[in-house]
Amino acid sequence: MIQFDQVSKRYPTGQVGLEGVSFHINAGEMAFLTGHSGAGKSTLLKLVMLMERATHGQVRIAGRNLRSMGRGEIPAHRREIGVVFQNHQLLFDRSVFENVALPLQISGYSRVDIGKRVRAALDQVGLLDKEKLPPISLSGGEQQRVGIARAVVHKPKLLLADEPTGNLDPGLSAEIMTLFERFNQVGVTVLIASHDMALIERMRHRVLTLNQGRLVADG
Ligand SMILES: Nc1ncnc2c1ncn2[C@@H]1O[C@H](COP(=O)(O)OP(=O)(O)OP(=O)(O)O)[C@@H](O)[C@H]1O
């Protein structure tokens, strides 16, 4: 599903994001990406999303070499991928329902389809009874679950998360990770960037470790 072959990313400023990184995450796998601040975790996720392009090497997603993907194909590529951020980037002047519906509205789904899909996604994250509330009235953990519902409402085959538990206490962090595991159990490929080693070790999944842009451990 995610294949990196000798991938390097050098930013125009000269900063090295990644250096000669190779790995393969199979469809249906769940893995963590860890490493110090500045190790290259976000860079790696951005290459998968085509928010950045590799300077050297090949990135293949679901068999497609991203080098051959033109600008016009990027929106469709991103729709295949669900992304969860640390600060969940919710719109606070809209309800929970509207926040989750947003990606589907942009894609032109009908009202009926949107209703069905949004409620299915909210059900999966245990927030069906909060759909009418504004996100500001929810706890930090609940807001993060709205972010996850929005990421999965398109039913992506690949789910990426960048420090999804960064602002949460250990109990809530474990709950959020269990949610990701549940999506993985129904076949979604999951890659989570996190520096919470205690949590990662308890989860017993594959861990890719970056250090100054290099992949230094995989297991
Ligand atoms: N847009 C950019 N322009 C220039 N340099 C960048 C850019 N984005 C990242 N970098 C540099 O690339 C390197 C890797 O950064 P990246 O954000 O991928 O690390 P990270 O592991 O996600 O860090 P953190 O845990 O702090 O988010 C760093 O040296 C960073 O300064």
Automatic annotation (TrEMBL):
Domain ABC transporter: 2-219
Keywords: ATP-binding, Cell cycle, Cell division, Cell membrane, Membrane, Nucleotide-binding
Subcellular location: Cell inner membrane; Cell membrane
Descriptive protein name: Cell division ATP-binding protein FtsE
Major location (coarse): membrane
Gene3D superfamilies (UniProt xref): P-loop containing nucleotide triphosphate hydrolases
SUPFAM superfamilies, sorted: P-loop containing nucleoside triphosphate hydrolases
